[in-house]
Amino acid sequence: MFQACPAECAVPPPEWVGQSCGAIVQKGGIKHFLIAKCTLPNIRLLTDAELCAAVAAGDIKLSPELLAEKPEAETTSSDTASCSPAEITGYTHTINWQSFRHDPTNQSEFAYWNYMKRNIKFLSLYYVGCDDLIYGIIPSPTFSSSHMIELKSTDKAGFMGTLSWNQFEDIVPFRRDLLWTALSGGCVDGPSGFTISVEMQSTLTLTAGGAPGTISGLEIVRQTCNQTIVISIDQINVLSGGPNAPVATPTNIAGPSGTTGGQISFDPANANVGVYEYIYTISACDDSYTRSVLVSVNA
């Protein structure tokens, strides 16, 4: 019997959970870099109030509009055994970008892109697709920028360069629609429905095939909101191992007056060894809070 790997190394095949009835083509194009102060957490984890405050403070900004692409990543291979082919050990991702936004009065684009070159290691950087999906934070990026002038007077002049980083996994994008509202000056002043007074744990350790575990203790303070406080899993990122993550089951805080009892249980019965990041929201009325938990599944 043919065996592709030792039995102790076997993992189940991944399960596709997306749309299966015909192709859904994602939009191409990258329209902006999103630049944040490096002391901020990932934008997807900020509460609505924190996001609005960060934008108002000038800690999150968009680059000028870009003409940009992200081609297939280049691979790095390494020989690990004489009688086996080389293994892929890393990926180098690259964005090739151009910007033709021009300030004819002050030539301020030169100062802008020079600032980016000098300070890239002190900033948190994301990129934004034409479909408003946000990718980031980009780990330890390398950034180049230079002014270019094309051949003819009917051609263009502007800035172009590359953004590159090394990462084995692809960055999983996320949406944060409030960000565009905030950047256009449309934020409201803070939450009015409820606030969180006690958070749930941010880490959990389980055993593959073992008993379920729970993060709990969520407590909220109701202000004007009498709805059920809904906890929902928005995204699961496989940080290592995988592919099958523990099954997450949230428990909401009942309306109209409940303030405790929110939790999420994780069942590792069919999970693979690995580390999984769960992005979840706690929402009701007009308020929504995004949080994350790292779940480690050991053998």
Structure description:
The protein is mainly β. The chain folds into 2 domains: 30-77 and 87-183, no CATH class; 194-298, Immunoglobulins (Immunoglobulin-like, Sandwich), CATH 2.60.40. 9% of the residues lie in helices and 42% in strands. The chain has helices spanning 48-56, 108-119, 177-183, and strands at residues 30-37, 60-62, 67-69, 74-78, 87-99, 123-129, 134-135, 142-143, 146-149, 157-166, 194-198, 203-207, 213-222, 230-241, 247-251, 260-267, 274-284, 287-298. The strands form 4 sheets. Strands 3, 4, 5, 8, 9 and 10 form a 6-stranded antiparallel β-sheet that branches. The longest helix has 12 residues, at 108-119. It is flat.
List keywords for this structure.
mainly beta, Immunoglobulin-like, 2 domains, 4-stranded antiparallel beta sheet, 3 helices, about 40% strand
Secondary structure topology:
Layout (H helix, E strand, L loop, with lengths): L29 E8 L10 H9 L3 E3 L4 E3 L4 E5 L8 E13 L8 H12 L3 E7 L4 E2 L6 E2 L2 E4 L7 E10 L10 H7 L10 E5 L4 E5 L5 E10 L7 E12 L5 E5 L8 E8 L6 E11 L2 E12 L1
Parallel strand pairs: 12-18
Antiparallel strand pairs: 1-2, 1-6, 3-5, 4-5, 5-10, 6-7, 8-10, 9-10, 11-13, 13-16, 14-17, 15-16, 17-18
Helix pairs in contact: 1-3
